[in-house]
């Protein structure tokens, strides 16, 4: 054998080792169909009053029974909290098609996201005060939609008790408290602004409402960004925990909190050993299992753990561990995006990421393998997102439904929407057509629109 032949042989062996390590992440349609069907069972458990308490997919009531009809008028504020940036919006509606939005964005430091809740709410109130003064709104009758992108137990539109923190938040003194109350207390402590009414909602709910303003057929929303979640319009007769009496609307938005799908073991058939390691190392082990398999906060970590296995097996990077690759959460979804955005055969982005990860001279083969790993992990994410959406498309059962989507993974990750759409088409019943619409700023805009739906000034006769 020539030296060249030996090298080729070595490459083939490395490739097959990498493929073997990735194999558990590549599953057939029968598995996605199973995820779709198991998710339906979980939804039913969440909606049923006897199983709701123990259900992992909580199906939380939102009390949003009415979607905007386009005739809303006035100025409405929104506060959108759920990630490292939080936003304040001012929406001006003229009762017709015109909608004007002013936005301001503020950064939440790690200490605000993990320190005492009081500091977080004081900061939100301070930014709101700055915003109101800047836009000279002190004398207006202000109504506000408050998007809080975490699981909330609601008993009314203006009450939301935080069930648990998810994603990177862990402020003390907030879980089991009504966040509307906590926010009002912070506003009162300042004593320089006044808000008439506040309604509270999840970011998926906001996305659905916002998309419904543009497309009347919207009945489902998906967020796939740092975290993931879905919501949909359910018939109130199936929402056993809701007792709306004779005046109840026929439908209400249900916040599935689908990120927690699988925390009762129902996704064990598709979890890989790497998914188990990631969960064990996380701050909320055992929770948000589906979110940990598909959302932006965790995909980079899955790739890092696969890479480590490939290195340990001697199939990549000459078996050498860099300090960076050994550091949990050091690989970001942004890096994966850049790698997959590069043209095949052009490794410059991949090389840059390797450099960030502490490798100066990766081989062409290492680059090819890393790209392959990213593709496997992001494709599983898109397919799993499609599986639960298929459940909802089938559940809604309309001949045509619009799905509002927001979140950086969907908006920024190369080819993610195409992959998701393709799998959804395969998994939803063929008689139910659907269309996915990006609803940028959906969560904030939806919050202001909800406030508008509830508090809109009546047209003068
Ligand atoms: C997490 C939150 C959920 C939110 C989602 C997307 O899963 O628990 O409420 O909708 O992230 O931001």
TrEMBL record:
Q: Which GO terms describe its cellular component?
A: cytosol; mitochondrion
Q: Which domain of life is it from?
A: Eukaryota
Q: Domain Hexokinase N-terminal spans what residues?
A: 18-213
Residue ranges of the Hexokinase C-terminal domain? 219-452
**GO biological process terms held by the UniProt record:** glucose metabolic process; glycolytic process; intracellular glucose homeostasis
Its family remark reads: Belongs to the hexokinase family.
Relate the protein's function as given in its record.
Catalyzes the phosphorylation of various hexoses to hexose 6-phosphate.
Q: What is this protein called?
A: Phosphotransferase
What species does this protein belong to?
A: Glossina palpalis gambiensis
| Record lineage | Eukaryota, Metazoa, Ecdysozoa, Arthropoda, Hexapoda
């Amino acid at each position: 054998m020539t030296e060249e032949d030996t090298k080729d042989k070595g490459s083939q062996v490395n490739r097959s080792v990498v493929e073997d390590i990735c194999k558990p992440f590549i599953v057939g349609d029968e598995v996605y169909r199973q995820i779709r069907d198991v998710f339906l069972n979980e939804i039913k458990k969440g909606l049923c009053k006897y199983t709701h308490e123990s259900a992992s997919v909580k199906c939380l009531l939102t009390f949003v029974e009415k979607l905007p009809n386009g005739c809303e008028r006035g100025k409405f504020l929104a506060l959108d909290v759920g990630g490292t940036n939080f936003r304040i919006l001012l929406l001006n509606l003229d009762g017709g098609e015109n909608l004007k939005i002013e936005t301001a964005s503020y950064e939440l430091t790690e200490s605000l996201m993990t320190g005492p809740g009081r500091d977080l709410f004081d900061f939100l109130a301070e930014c709101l005060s700055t915003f109101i003064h800047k836009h000279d709104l002190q004398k207006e009758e202000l109504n506000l939609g408050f998007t809080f992108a975490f699981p909330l137990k609601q008993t009314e539109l203006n009450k939301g008790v935080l069930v648990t923190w998810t994603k990177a938040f862990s402020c003390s003194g907030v879980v089991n408290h009504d966040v509307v109350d906590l926010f009002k207390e912070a506003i009162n402590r300042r004593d320089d602004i006044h808000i008439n009414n506040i309604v509270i909602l999840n970011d998926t709910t906001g996305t659905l409402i916002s998309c419904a303003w543009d497309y009347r057929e919207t009945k489902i929303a998906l967020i796939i960004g740092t975290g993931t979640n879905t919501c949909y319009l359910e018939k109130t007769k199936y929402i056993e925990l809701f007792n709306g009496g004779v005046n109840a609307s026929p439908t209400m938005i249900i916040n599935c909190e689908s990120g927690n799908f699988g925390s009762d073991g129902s996704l064990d058939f598709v979890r890989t050993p790497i998914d188990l390691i990631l969960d064990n190392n996380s701050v909320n082990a055992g929770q948000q299992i589906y979110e940990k398999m598909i959302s932006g906060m965790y995909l980079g970590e899955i790739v890092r753990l696969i890479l480590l296995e490939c290195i340990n097996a001697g199939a990549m990077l000459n078996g050498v561990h860099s300090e960076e690759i050994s550091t949990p959460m050091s690989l970001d979804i942004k890096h994966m995006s850049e790698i997959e955005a590069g043209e095949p055969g052009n490794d410059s982005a991949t090389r840059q990421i390797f450099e960030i990860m502490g490798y100066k001279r990766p081989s062409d083969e290492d680059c090819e393998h890393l790209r392959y790993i990213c593709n496997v992990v992001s494709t599983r994410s898109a397919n799993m997102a499609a599986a639960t959406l298929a459940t909802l498309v089938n559940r809604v059962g309309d001949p045509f439904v619009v799905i509002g989507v927001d979140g950086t993974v969907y908006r920024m990750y190369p080819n993610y929407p195409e992959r998701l759409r393709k799998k959804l088409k395969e998994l939803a019943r063929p008689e139910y057509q659907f269309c996915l619409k990006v609803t940028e700023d959906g969560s904030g805009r939806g919050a202001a629109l909800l406030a508008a739906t509830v508090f809109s000034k009546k047209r003068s006769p």
